[in-house]
Design goal:
The complex is a heterodimer of chains A (118) and B (115). Chain A is 0% helix and 51% strand. Chain A is built from no helices and twelve strands. In chain A, the strands form three sheets. In chain A, strands 2, 5, 6, 10, 11 and 12 form a six-stranded mixed beta sheet that branches. A four-stranded antiparallel beta sheet of chain A has the order 3-9-8-7, with no helix packed on it. Chain A has a two-stranded antiparallel ribbon with strand order 1-4. Chain B is mainly beta and 115 residues long. In chain B, strands 2, 4, 5, 6, 9, 10 and 11 form a seven-stranded mixed beta sheet that branches. In chain B, strands 1-3-8-7 form a four-stranded antiparallel beta sheet, with no helix packed on it. Classes of the chains: A mainly beta (118), B mainly beta (115).
Chain lengths: 118, 115
Amino acid sequence: AQTVTQSQPEMSVQEAETVTLSCTYDTSESDYYLFWYKQPPSRQMILVIRQEAYKQQNATENRFSVNFQKAAKSFSLKISDSQLGDAAMYFCAYRLNAGGTSYGKLTFGQGTILTVHP
Amino acid sequence: EAGVTQFPSHSVIEKGQTVTLRCDPISGHDNLYWYRRVMGKEIKFLLHFVKESKQDESGMPNNRFLAERTGGTYSTLKVQPAELEDSGVYFCASSQDMKAKNIQYFGAGTRLSVL
């Protein structure tokens, strides 16, 4: 079974600074997707960024980028120029990219609460 | 375009009572997922509908949980009878198809408190 681990329950960063959130996962599969989702307080969870395991190039979305290390099964999220609106719970998630009845589901980590200080 | 909506946002019930959670997916999304986050733990998958059919219900904890999606539109998740350990946040998500790269859009969740 696949597992996702976020070892940082809480992180904090000063506005305009850079912060990195850690995520490791365990799988015996080679074809999968990894995601970072963000959930602001009492609001919907939204996708921040996604990475296909077969792509070596790290994904980037504006101020958000990932460091994907497939061999190490590591998928960290870097937020540059942090803004107050980045404060949220961040979840790392895994999704198998293959056939079968269970490949639709996401497997999540425990989440990291990010606080941004002005 | 309306996002995924969930009702109620918060429900407080006593042990042994019944509660029904509702999820309205994004219009046109055939795939609907239910997840649950128990306090302090990871979000866990419960089940997956494709239209009105259950594609995967491997995450359903026991037979006190019943999910339906009549007509392939909105879905309900009934807990009967509720137990203390059922407390948590229940999330619903929808996606247009099952491709792994495609985004699952989430609702804001229903916070269930069983006293």
